[in-house]
């Protein structure tokens, strides 16, 4: 179940197509947890969904999204990163296996018990989201442009 929720969070992070809700619908415990963990965050936008609450903001010129469960407790965060910030072995695998693709964006996904890297790439015919998994890159999702 937890992996399914993480997959939903990644999909929301990469697609970016969420609609902000009325601030009154946002769990105030989540707001308090956010404010103590991310002091100085500005331009925070909150989104309430059926199974989680999300705060979106920029920190050090990077897009950050933080997810909280319905009880207001931290689930995970995603941080948009530059390709240069990916681990060296991930960059090497990408260069070797996906040289015909252009990087659209890269994310670092962090929860209490794991850290994952995702790379959104494209070529003329498809969009792919790659995930670093146990020292390799696997296709997390694939969408045809045709």
Task: Kindly describe this structure.
The protein is α+β, with helices and mostly antiparallel strands and 146 residues long. It has two domains: 79 residues, no CATH class; 65 residues, Roll (Nuclear Transport Factor 2, Chain: A). It is 23% helix and 44% strand. The chain is built from three helices and eight strands, in the order H-H-E-E-E-E-H-E-E-E-E. Strands 1-2-3-4-5-6-7-8 form an eight-stranded antiparallel β-sheet. It is elongated. The N and C termini lie far apart (33 Å).
Put the structure in a nutshell.
The protein is an alpha+beta fold. It has helices spanning 2-15, 28-37, 88-97, and strands spanning 42-48, 53-59, 62-68, 74-81, 102-111, 115-122, 126-133, 136-144. The protein is elongated.
- The first-to-last residue Cα distance is 33 Å
Strand content: 35-45%
Q: How many beta strands in the DSSP annotation?
A: 8
Could you give a short account of the major beta sheet? 8 strands, antiparallel
């Amino acid at each position: 179940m937890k992996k399914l929720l993480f997959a939903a969070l990644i999909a929301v992070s990469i697609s970016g197509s969420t609609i902000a809700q009325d601030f009154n619908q946002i769990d105030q415990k989540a707001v308090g947890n956010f404010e103590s963990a991310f002091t100085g965050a500005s331009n925070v936008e909150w989104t309430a969904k059926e199974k989680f609450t999300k705060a979106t903001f920029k920190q050090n010129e990077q897009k950050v999204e933080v997810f909280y469960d319905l009880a207001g407790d931290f689930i995970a965060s995603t941080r948009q990163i530059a390709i240069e910030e990916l681990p060296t072995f991930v960059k090497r695998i990408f260069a070797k296996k996906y040289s015909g693709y252009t990087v659209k964006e890269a994310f670092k996904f962090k929860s209490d018990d794991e850290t994952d890297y995702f790379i959104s790439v494209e070529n003329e015919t498809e969009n792919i989201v790659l995930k670093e998994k146990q020292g390799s890159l696997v296709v997390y999702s694939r969408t045809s442009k045709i």
